[in-house]
């Protein structure tokens, strides 16, 4: 009877605002005392069912700068499978108003958060790890908004900034053991990522890893900008996505088997700028010719819809000019492509191109290109061909036969039209 009374009083204490305040103060004082840095929590509420509400979390680093600030976090974690089983079930997570900075200087391998690990994680390494089954992870809805994150790694020469407007994710399945990941819904909106690489990577990781099996019922990206600048590779790129939509029934990357329902891209801009030594682009030395081999991929795309996009490419800061086409300075505007029933498997390609249009800065304009095409190892068939530019127009069909595709590549004069 006494134990029951103590248990009830303990529950009432933990669930009361007074008890929660005491717990928060104890946690703040403990972390602050161990690290010697400022720690603040405005509100923390935890339920026995696994509900967590955290508001106004602030952590500073050893220099007095903001390491992490979180305005509001609400989570619902199933405790029974975690305590009595081997399952982490995050039913729901809503997190907003986050500012975080991770950094390390060029002369150190320690990050600005390592002091937390040194202070709070036990240093006893005598205990030996026991083998256990991988934890099962179940993820429900995740809703993140208003994130401002900075990663500045002078040691590796990486500087990244991310401003996240909103990321909403509703997971269908996450299995780390079998590498199967499925999404019911994913939405990324009003966000920006900046990436800069100033040093070459020292070594490449050649460790073999299992490739995942992916699927997504509905993936949508709107108003997202990405900039990439790599000084070692002399590459600068910028992407501005207006609307991107993807329905992905299957992407078995281990078997190179990909099936796309719909892929749409609208009102988006892509630009790539390269720098290099012209001498390094001289014609390669002739070598022994290898026979053509069909890549082992299996691809199906039901619908591809690109509308009102721009594509730009520049080499060594050259600029496109009206009246003269320059392959080292290309600027396409109004790029649109609509295609259906795209299929690829070794020795077989199928495509129904409904529409391809664009304008190039030089003045060339492709008003329309459309055709149905099939390609196999011995023939090419093009029907319902329609081509129209700002200067010409053509219609027709094409039948091309050859002994094998690799022979067509090596000796095209032996093919029959």
Describe this structure as you would to a colleague:
The chain is mainly beta and 417 residues long. The protein has five helices and 18 strands. It has helices at residues 2-15, 17-35, 79-84, 114-120, 405-410, and strands spanning 39-40, 43-46, 51-60, 66-78, 87-104, 136-153, 158-175, 180-197, 213-230, 235-252, 257-266, 269-274, 298-315, 329-345, 348-360, 365-376, 379-389, 393-401.
Q: Give the low-confidence spans.
A: none
Shape: elongated
* Pattern of helices and strands: HHEEEEHEHEEEEEEEEEEEEEH
Q: What's the multimeric state?
A: single chain
Beta content: over 45%
Average pLDDT, rounded to a whole number, is: 87
Major sheet characteristics: 18 strands, mixed
**Alpha-beta classification:** mainly beta
Radius of gyration: 29 Å
SS element count, helices:
5
- Helical content class: 10-25%
Distance between the termini: 96 Å
Number of strands: 18
Tags for this model:
417 residues; mainly beta; single chain; 18-stranded mixed β-sheet
Structure described in brief:
The protein is mainly beta. Helices cover 12% and strands 56% of the residues. It is elongated, with a radius of gyration of 29 Å.
Summarize the topology:
Layout lengths: L1 H14 L1 H19 L3 E2 L2 E4 L4 E10 L5 E13 H6 L2 E18 L9 H7 L15 E18 L4 E18 L4 E18 L15 E18 L4 E18 L4 E10 L2 E6 L23 E18 L13 E17 L2 E13 L4 E12 L2 E11 L3 E9 L3 H6 L7
Parallel strand pairs: 5-6, 8-9, 11-13, 12-13
Antiparallel strand pairs: 1-3, 2-3, 3-4, 4-5, 6-7, 7-8, 9-10, 10-11, 10-12, 13-14, 14-15, 15-16, 16-17, 17-18
Helix pairs in contact: 1-2
């Amino acid at each position: 009877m006494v134990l029951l009374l103590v248990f009830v009083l303990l529950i009432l204490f933990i669930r009361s605002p007074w008890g929660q305040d005491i717990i928060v103060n104890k946690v703040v004082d403990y972390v602050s005392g161990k690290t010697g840095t400022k720690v603040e929590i405005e509100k923390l509420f935890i339920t026995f069912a696994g509900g967590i509400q955290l508001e106004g979390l602030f952590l500073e680093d050893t220099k007095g700068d903001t390491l992490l600030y979180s305005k509001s976090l609400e989570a619902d974690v199933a405790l029974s499978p975690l305590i009595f089983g081997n399952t982490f079930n995050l039913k729901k997570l809503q997190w907003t108003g986050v500012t975080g900075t991770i950094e390390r200087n060029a002369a150190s391998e320690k990050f600005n958060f390592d002091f937390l690990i040194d202070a709070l994680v036990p240093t006893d390494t005598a205990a030996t790890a026991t083998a256990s089954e991988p934890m099962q992870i179940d993820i429900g809805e995740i809703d993140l908004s208003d994130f401002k994150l900075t990663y500045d790694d002078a040691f590796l020469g990486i500087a990244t900034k991310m401003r996240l407007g909103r990321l909403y994710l509703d997971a269908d399945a996450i299995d780390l053991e079998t590498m199967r990941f499925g999404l019911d819904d994913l939405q990324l909106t009003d966000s920006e990522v900046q990436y800069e690489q100033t040093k070459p990577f020292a070594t490449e990781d050649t460790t073999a890893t299992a490739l995942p099996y992916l699927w997504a019922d509905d993936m949508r990206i709107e108003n997202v900008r990405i900039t990439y600048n790599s000084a070692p590779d002399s590459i600068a790129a910028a992407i501005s996505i207006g609307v991107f939509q993807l329905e992905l029934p299957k992407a078995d990357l281990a078997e190179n088997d990909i099936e796309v329902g719909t892929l749409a891209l609208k009102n988006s801009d892509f630009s790539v700028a390269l720098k290099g030594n012209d001498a390094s682009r001289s014609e390669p030395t002739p070598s022994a010719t290898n026979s053509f081999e069909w890549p082992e991929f299996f691809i199906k795309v039901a619908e591809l819809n690109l509308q009102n996009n721009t594509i730009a490419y520049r080499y060594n800061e050259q600029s496109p000019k009206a009246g003269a086409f320059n392959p080292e300075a290309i600027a396409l505007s109004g790029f649109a492509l609509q295609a259906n029933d795209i299929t690829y498997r070794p020795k077989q390609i199928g495509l129904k191109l409904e529409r391809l249009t664009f304008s190039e800065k030089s003045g060339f304009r492709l008003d329309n290109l459309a055709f149905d095409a099939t390609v196999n190892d011995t023939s090419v068939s093009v029907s319902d061909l329609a081509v129209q530019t700002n200067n010409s127009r053509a219609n027709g069909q094409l039948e091309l036969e050859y002994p094998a595709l690799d022979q067509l590549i090596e000796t095209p004069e032996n093919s029959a039209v």
